[in-house]
Amino acid sequence: MLRLLTIEFHKLKYNTASKVLSLIYFGLLTCIALIAAIKFNIGPIKFHLAEMGIFNFPYIWHFNTYIAAILKFFLLLVIVSMMSNEYSYKTLKQNLIDGLSKKEFILSKFYAVLAFACISTLFVFVVSLILGFVYSDYNEISIIVTDLSYLFAFFIKLVGFFSMGLFFGILVKRSAFAVGAMVVWSIIENLFRGFLFINLRGEENISEKVNAIMQFLPLEALSNLIKEPFSRLGAVKSVASQIGETFTKNYSVEFFSVSIVLIWTFIFIYLSYALLKKRDL
User: Fold this and answer.
1) Label partner for 235 (CA 20 to 30 A): which of 9, 16, 18, 123?
2) What CA–CA distance (Å, rounded) separates 254 from 106?
3) How are the residues of the chain apportioned to helix, strand and coil, as percentages rounded to the nearest 5?
4) What is the pTM of this model?
5) Which pLDDT does position 148 carry in this prediction?
6) What was the pLDDT predicted at 239?
7) Alpha carbons 109 and 54: distance in angstroms, whole number
8) Domain extent at residue 143
9) 96-125: string of b/e by CB count within 10 Å (b at 16+)?
C-alpha cells in the first residue's frame, strides 16, 4: 500500500494544477473560520453568526462537515486530472511496462482517494475543534464527542464521490469530460426524480415514496449522508415555532445510507478495474 501511495504522490508532486487545486481546497476549508467574523447590525437587530450557536458542540460537527462537503468539487478535479494525466503523459502504459499490474494501478488510485479523504476529514476535525473551543458554550468532553459520526459520514462521502469521479475519469479519459459526465449524471438523477413525481401523482405520501426510490441512486445517496443542518439550529427552530411550524426531520447519520454509499464505492472501483482490464492500452 505504501509503495503504491508513494507512486501516486510522486506524480502529484510534479503536477502544478493538482497542487494549486489542493491548496485552494484546504484554504477554503480554513475559511470556514471566517464565518465567525460575519457580523452586522440592522437598526436594533444585531446579527452575529458565531453567537447564533453554529460553532457550539456538538452542532459544529454537523455544520462544518456539511459546509466542507460542498467544497469537495475542488478535490474531485484533482482526482480526475490524476487519471486524465495518465493517458495524456502515457504514464499508465509506462507503469504497466515497469511491472505494475492493472489491479495495482487501480489500487494506487483508490489509496490516493482514501488518503485525500482521510486528510480532509482530519483537517475538518482540527478546524472544528479549534472553532468549538473558541466559540462553543459547551466544552464538556461528553458533549464534544457527541455527533462525531458526522466526521465518519464526511469521510465516506468523500471516498464515494471521488471513487465515482475516478470511474468517469477512466471512462472518458479527459478531466473536463469526466466532470461533465458527473454533471450530466446529476441532471439524469433530477430528471428521474421528476419522472417519479409525475408517475406517482395523486398517491398519498408521494414525497416519501419518491425519496425511498431515489435514495438508492449514487449522488442522492451521497447527499443523504449529511443532511442540511440549518433547520436544526436553535434560532431557526425558534422562529419556526413562532409562525406555527415544527421540524420533525431526522438529522442523524443513518447506517442504511452509509451502506448504500459503500456499495456504490465498491461498484465504481470494480467497474474502473474492469474497464481498465478490458481496454487495450
Assistant:
1) 123
2) 29
3) 75, 5, 20
4) 0.89
5) 95
6) 47
7) 36
8) 2-278
9) eeeebebebbbbbbbbbbbebbeebbeebb
The continuous run of DSSP H or E covering 110 comes out as: helix 102-135
Instruction: Map grid coordinates 462553543 to a residue.
Output: 136
Number of Cβ within 10 Å of residue 211's Cβ equals 14
Residue 217 has a pLDDT of 96
Please tell me the distance from the alpha carbon of residue 186 to that of residue 212, in angstroms, as a whole number. 18
The total of structural domains in the chain comes to: 1
Residue 60 is placed in which grid cell?
Answer: 459544529
- CA gap 188, 81 in Å, rounded: 24
Q: Are 125 and 91 in contact (CB under 8 A)?
A: no
Cα 112 from Cα 1, distance rounded (Å): 10
Residue 48 backbone dihedrals phi, psi, to 5 degrees? -140, 110
Q: Rounded distance, CA 108 to CA 123, Å?
A: 22
Burial tier of 165 (Cβ tally within 10 Å: 0-12, 13-18, 19+): buried
**185 and 100 in contact (C-beta within 8 Å)?**
no
- Series of mean pLDDT values for 10-residue runs along the chain (281 residues): 79 78 86 68 61 84 93 86 78 80 90 93 94 88 93 97 92 84 94 93 85 95 93 59 60 94 97 87 60
Biggest CA–CA distance in the chain, Å, is 71
Q: Taking Cα atoms as reference points, which of 156, 125, 116, 168 lies closest to residue 275?
A: 168
